[in-house]
Structure formats: structure tokens, C-alpha cells
Design brief:
alpha/beta, Rossmann fold, five-stranded parallel β-sheet, 9 strands, 15% strand, elongated, SEFIR domain-containing protein
């Protein structure tokens, strides 16, 4: 879907002559054309100069309706944002709307408003109150400079974070594969032993003989040491208690470490459980 983009800008800045003002106008126009090349539906007041329009109504309506508001910053726009650029009353009017949006709906402002630094402007043209926002330096003559902006306009990440695969044991459990027991008993994980001992027993409906809850792996370690149980046997930590109904009837006990994350589960053999309960 093509995002609807409205370009906001100040037509001039203090100290600019007619040639500088026209050059800035041409830059903003070329930038809006680039938006179309990127696949966005770019709009700017320049496209409506031949129409008998009420500029205040048009610009306000376009800002409200647009998916994105792209601000082409400049020295003049920086002054207009706090209302101190009498040479750009239209920009000041637009900025009043933007200030209201920032104050009343900051989340919408951050999502919708995008700052762009075009040739003829610098980062110093960004108001201090907006300096923490992401900005994009774009040269309309260099389409590649707008790739970051394109990802922002379409809300598409430039670098996609890989999706972690589902752990092998969880796949086996959900598939109901009997090989889960062998997988459990042939996996070794070394658990830390940082603190003091202690043990709490609990009940889980349907698995009362299979479950112990420890208030920390350290307490489990201390209890095993008290029972003279070696640490070189088979242990496993996995996420997800959905394995419990599968492994308990198959002779594998479950010990939940209450001192770690709630979804961490430690599996031991039924023989180990019997020793711990002794």
C-alpha cells in the first residue's frame, strides 16, 4: 500500500535572496518527485498553487489525513516551529498543528512526523526540542540516499532480526514423539550454584509424584550435595511447561527451578526424583 505523504516546509529563511529561495523551492519539488519514485504518494503545497484554495484549510486537512508528514527542515522552518518566522506565516500555522500533536499525542507525532535534511539545510536547522528524533539526510539527485527514509515510510526494517528456531525438545514434545525421553536423558547442562540451600516441595495436579519446586538452582545444587548426588549425570533446562504431561507418564521426573524464569524447567530421571524424595 502506498503511504500518503505530505511535505511540510518553510518557503524562505532570513537572509535568503530570491535566487536562494527559488533554489530551495526546486529542491523541495525534486524531493517530492523522489517520494513518488520510492513508491509513496507524495504531496506538497506546490502541487496546488494553481488552485483557488484556502491554504490554512488545505494544509491542515492534508496533515491530518496523511500517513506520514515529512518536514524538510531549514533555518526558516526552525524559526517557524516556535512561531518566530514572520516571513513564513504558512509554516508557522502548520507548526502550531505539529506542536499540538506533539503535546497531546506524542506517540502519534513520533510515528507520523519524519524530519528530512535536504541539500541547502543542515542538522543545525532541527529545533532543539526535536533533536532527539531520527532524521534522514537525503539528496534528491542521489536516489540511494533515500533508502533509510523509504524503510521508514513503509514501516519496513532495513535489517531483519532472524527468528530463533523452536528448540528441538519443544518440537518433539508438541509432536508427541517418544524419542523426547532419550533426548532429555542424553543432554547435559551445567547449572550454577551461587547462593544458599533450601528446598520447597509442591503439588501439580496429576503429577504429584513427579514434581519438586526449588527456590533457585543454587538450592537444588545444595540439596544434591547434601544427598551426595554427582553433578556429572544428565540434566537439561528447557522453556515451556507443556513438556510436563508428556514426560511424567514416561518415567521422567520434572524439577522446576523457581529461582529462574518461570518458563524454565529442569528434567531429571524418575530414579533421581525418588532419591531426592528419600
Amino acid at each position: 500500500m502506498r503511504p500518503d505523504v505530505f511535505v511540510v516546509w518553510a518557503h524562505t529563511s532570513p537572509g535568503w535572496d530570491a535566487a536562494r529561495t527559488q533554489a530551495w523551492r526546486d529542491t523541495v519539488h525534486r524531493f517530492t518527485l523522489l517520494l513518488h519514485d520510492l513508491g509513496a504518494d507524495g504531496d506538497v503545497d506546490l502541487y496546488h498553487e494553481h488552485e483557488p484554495v484556502d491554504w490554512s484549510t488545505l494544509c491542515l486537512q492534508r496533515m491530518e489525513d496523511a500517513d506520514r508528514i515529512v518536514v524538510a527542515v531549514s533555518a526558516g522552518w526552525k524559526l517557524a516551529f516556535p512561531g518566530r518566522n514572520p516571513q513564513s506565516r504558512g509554516a508557522e500555522y502548520e507548526c502550531r498543528y505539529l506542536r499540538g500533536l506533539l503535546m497531546d499525542h506524542p506517540d502519534v507525532f513520533e510515528r507520523k512526523v519524519i524530519l528530512v535534511v535536504l541539500p541547502g539545510a543542515t542538522r543545525a536547522d532541527i529545533p532543539l526540542s526535536l533533536a532527539c528524533m531520527q532524521r534522514y539526510e537525503v539528496d534528491p539527485a542521489v536516489p540511494g540516499s533515500a533508502q533509510g527514509l523509504k524503510h521508514r515510510l513503509f514501516d519496513q526494517p532495513k535489517y531483519v532480526k532472524p527468528v530463533l528456531p523452536v528448540p528441538r525438545l519443544r518440537e518433539l514434545a508438541r509432536a508427541g514423539a517418544p524419542e523426547v525421553v532419550a533426548e532429555l536423558l542424553n543432554t547435559t547442562v551445567y547449572l550454577p550454584d551461587p547462593c544458599r540451600p533450601g528446598l520447597v516441595a509442591t503439588e501439580v495436579d496429576g503429577h504429584e509424584q513427579s514434581v519438586l519446586v526449588f527456590t533457585g538452582v543454587d538450592r537444588l545444587a545444595a540439596y544434591r550435595k547434601l544427598k551426595n548426588l554427582p553433578w556429572d549425570d544428565r540434566w537439561l533446562e528447557v522453556g515451556g511447561a507443556e513438556l510436563l504431561p508428556l514426560v511424567a507418564p514416561l518415567g521422567v521426573g520434572v524439577v522446576i527451578d523457581a529461582g529462574a524464569a518461570l518458563d524454565e524447567t529442569v528434567f531429571v530421571s524418575a530414579a533421581e526424583i525418588r532419591v531426592l524424595l528419600a
